[in-house]
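Help!! Second protein's tokens look totally different from the first
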Amino acid sequence: MNPMSLKENRVHGRPMYPISVYHMECAPGGTVLECHWHSEFEFILVTKGRAVFQVGTGSFELTEGEAVFVHSGEIHAGDPVGEAGCSYSAVVFGAELLTGSMDLVQEKCVDPLLQRVCRLPVKITGAAEWGAEVIRLLGRMLESSAEETASQVLATKGLLLLIMAQLFSQGEAGEVPKAALWKTEQIKTALHYIHEHYQRTIRLKDLCLLTNMSEGHFCRVFRSVMQYSPIDYINKYRTQQAAKLLERTDKKIAAVAMDTGFENISYFTSVFKTHMGVTPSQFRKGTAGA
């Protein structure tokens, strides 16, 4: 099973300028960021409210003015905290933006990152001087990246290099354990299967066969990476897809339940309320009046 469909298909920037900036508003109870991965690096800066972001095997609660750094190829996702919703800005960039040739930046910074022999901080706050500087520089970069004039392109790349310099000042040498990388790749395979087959019955033993693990070992590994049990994650993903159908179509709630893999409408209602804080009918009424 190839996990590539879990890889985000969106093209970030273009070959000559591989960077994109996104500003996202997340309604209360809604999904902040669906689970995915991509080959680029990313900074996520919360600009309003609170959210919990999963990055790799870690879980990080962020408030306004805090950020996370997402390594190339790392699984990441986001969930809201509280009932107020949140906003965030994301900067997604290719490693080639950091250097254009085989120079010392490539040798001492880019290669160690891509080879996973260097670990950089993930959560960035203003508690330490270096973190406060990164947050300040991120804010300036978000402003400078609005257009592609000569001065703004130079400013964006320069600010990105300064940000990475701050991260490297706090980085640690040392290869990411192969066991951790293996676990992540196996879970990507399981996630791909879940995302492709959520409308049908998904059996735990099928996920175990795909990942060559026993049921007990698979459940432990899945929870260690995703912060959810396999069943809880399947229900969460199905709920996210159901919410989209409730918001974007006029399908009956029973049909939405069936279309997203729930065979029992009572169970669907219970699971939906657990993850969204409201029943499916309340969610539809709320989005219709928004």
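Here's the second one for comparison:
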Amino acid sequence: MANLNRFDFNLLLALDTLLSERSVTRAADRLCVTQPALSGSLQRLRQHFDDPLLLRVGREMELTPKARALIEPVRTALLHINAALETQAIFDPGTSERTFRVAMSDYCVHVYLPKVVRILAARAPQLRLMIENVFGPSFSRLEGGDIDMVITHGDRSLFGREGRDVDLLTADLFTDSFVCVVARDHPIGETMTKDDYLSYPHALAFFGANVRTVEEAEIERRGIVIKELLHVPTFAGLLQMLPGTEMIATVQSKLAEQLADTDKVRVLRPPINLGTLQETLIWHNRSDDDPGHIWLRKVLKEAAAELG
């Protein structure tokens, strides 16, 4: 406890930012303080830890082994402090101006988010909901406290997260199936065969080198090779690419029902079983007892129930 009494906890935020940015200049800009002021904080941190923490190597600053060892405990300490400061015994959705940040796919934005927004408009009109696209680093951002929740497929191996994320909690939201969509005048008849599926080119949604869609994972599991002609960064965008081409796009049934223009495209049953999409709500266990989180998670589940 003597060390706690002597340590200036205002330095924790400076240390976390310095460890993240590895630059006094960038860290000062991020913290909105002057560079000399942050240099003074770094000097005090060096004295406390008896370690230089950052060393210049060429034009870059590198972390010392001691500094690298501090990254996780310092970040965790700040997150717990922030959670303690934000936690209120009572959460009043009618008056709350709290901001929640949630990562989800454009698919969820189209078929699910409008239901959430309508509930919030009626019950929590001042609450702010910031949505970002779910991608590979989303789970690291969740662990780091940069976002509050992730909504995506329940199989986190699709993001290369096997055996990780032990501090994350989950709740199933809703399911969906898959359909194939082609241009209205596509040579494929009313029934798509497996040969059709393999011989015609495909348009795929692509979210980064370490992220696979449910379709890609199932194709890989079956040892099937398809002709990938086009990658776009959204599921909804696939439907706009098909008219005037012979490409096939595989999308979620609910998305096709909502967005497919039947004057321009046809929706067909896939010739192979591509599995079931299970959209899942994911949050960090440090937020599990937060009254605001609890309330929003109930709203998210209620909106999901409306999808059936």
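Reply: Different proteins will give different token patterns, so don't panic. The chain has a mean pLDDT of 89.
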